[in-house]
Each structure stands twice: as C-alpha cells, then as structure tokens.
Design brief:
The protein has eight helices and no strands. It is mainly α. The protein has one domain: MetI-like (MetI-like fold, Orthogonal Bundle), CATH 1.10.3720.10. Helix 1 runs antiparallel to helix 2 and helix 6 runs antiparallel to helix 8. About 30% of the residues are buried.
C-alpha cells in the first residue's frame, strides 16, 4: 500500500465525472436520433419496415451492453480499425439507447387516442403532418418521464465502459484503488457520486409521472 487517500485523488475522481457526463450525453443524443428513426420505422404502415425495426429492437435488447462494447471495441480492431475507447463506448451505448428509446417512444405514439388520427384525416393531413403537428407534440408529454428514467439508467451503465479502458468515474476509482487499496472508501465515494448524479433525475422523472397520472384521472 502506498500512502492514503489524498485531495489529488478526490480531484481525479471529480474530474472523471466530467467524462461520465460526456459519454452519457453522447450516447443519449446520438441514441435519441437513432431512436427517433427506429420509432418511425416501427410505426410505419409498411410491414417489412416495421418488422425490420422490431427485429432490431429485440436483437439489441437481447444482447448485454457489455457484449456490444466488446463487439465494437475488439471486433473492429480485428479488421484493422483501432477505435478509441470513447468512440467505441459512444457507439455501443448509442446502439443500445436507440433500441430502448425507439421502443419507449413507439409505445407513447401508439398510446395516443385513435380519434386524434381520425380527426387529422378529416382535415386532410398527411401521415407525416399528423405525426409532426398532432401526435408527436402530445406524445412528448407522455414520453418524458420514461425517457428521463432511461437517462438515469444510461448514466449508471456508462460504468461498463471501464472494461475497455475508458477512464470515467468507475475506471478512475479502480485506478486509485489499485494504487492505495482502500476499496470501501473509494468505491463508496464513487457510489455517492453516481447517486448525486442520478437521484435528482430520478426524482424529476417520478414527479412528472405523478403529475401525468393526476392529470389523467
């Protein structure tokens, strides 16, 4: 054991939070863009497109995120592509997020009352106009709580990026613990930092869900 926990170790942990947030934001934004496309494909009137999106969702949801990380980081290197850890983690989390967000948003779109679609047809709106002007604005309110809830899970799942060497909060804790071996203190702090990041979002999601349930009564 070489020394104890110092202020420099604490600073290192705090700085690593920034990379956790960067990876979470990257995965959420890119996954959201992909998820929107998956949602549109899933609700498409074209059966082949809807079935393709369903197969994609079920395949990604059936594969552990850790395996996706290995496929992107180690798999691409077999073909000569040396992918940086941040890029590999971002790509794997983007694919993972797109499947879950696409499925969440598809459910919210399909939860909209059928008369909304029928009224739009009476106004001679196209399917895209109906989605853009009528359905999606209403579905966004319904989708916000589960979307924020998924973001909470995504922040915690960034810890898996430590297995491919990306230095986020969990990996920073491992590095410090390897040098001073104080696991209860170090990983207790890491857990406290994750709690500080996730708890406000969890409460916000719960608050929105409660308001939504009250307004629907």
């Amino acid at each position: 054991m070489s020394g104890g926990f110092t202020a420099s170790h604490l600073v290192y942990l705090v700085q690593s939070i920034g990379w956790t947030l960067v990876l979470s934001a990257l995965a959420f934004v890119l996954g959201g863009i992909g998820g929107f496309g998956v949602m549109l494909a899933r609700i498409s009137p074209r059966p082949w497109l809807s079935r393709t999106a369903l197969v994609y969702i079920e395949a990604i949801q059936g594969i552990p995120l850790l395996i996706l990380l290995f496929i992107v980081y180690f798999g691409l290197s077999v073909y000569g592509y040396q992918v940086p850890a941040l890029v590999a983690a971002g790509l794997a989390l983007m694919v993972y997020s797109s499947a879950y967000l696409g499925d969440i948003w598809r459910g919210c779109i399909e939860a909209m009352p059928k008369p909304q679609w029928e009224a739009s047809e009476c106004l001679s709106l196209s399917r895209w106009q109906t989605l853009r002007l009528v359905i999606i604005p209403q579905a966004m309110r319904l989708a916000l709580p589960p979307t924020v809830g998924f973001l909470v899970q995504l922040i915690k799942m960034t810890s898996l990026a430590s297995v491919i060497g990306f230095i986020e909060l969990t990996r920073a804790g491992q590095i410090i613990n390897n040098s001073i071996f104080q696991p209860f203190l170090i990983f207790g702090l890491v857990g406290a930092f994750y709690f500080a990041l996730c708890y406000p979002l969890s409460r916000w999601s719960q608050s929105m869900e409660n308001k939504l349930n009250v307004s629907n009564r």
